[in-house]
Amino acid sequence: xxxxxxxxxxxxxxxxxxxxxxxYFGRRKNVWTVAxxxxxxxxxxxxxxxxxxxxxxxxxWITRINAGARQHGMTYSQFMGACKKHxxxxxxxxxADLAMNHPDAFKAVVDKIK
Length: 114
Known about the structure:
By secondary structure, the chain is mostly helical. The chain has a single domain (8-113), classed as c-terminal domain of poly(a) binding protein (Orthogonal Bundle), CATH 1.10.1900. It has five helices and no strands. The longest helix is centred in the middle third of the chain and has 40 residues, at 32-71.
């Protein structure tokens, strides 16, 4: 009996990877082994950076809150400590938005904790 190879599934698997490699430069878009490696690497970067994105945004928010707090004579650390002590439960994302886009509202928060 001849050997059976599931060519339909193999072809579909390759097509899926080649479709993901669409738009890559040079052999990465049309040579199977190169494209497979490129797509695997890209997917690992995507997985890693979905987690790193959270870190970088938190760092950005902290920087913005610090800048806003220093305009009112406080450091970030003092500001966040006072927020916790006075029971202000605004998260860093919201505080950063206030500091950046609504300085009068941020000033009201600062006045409440001083």
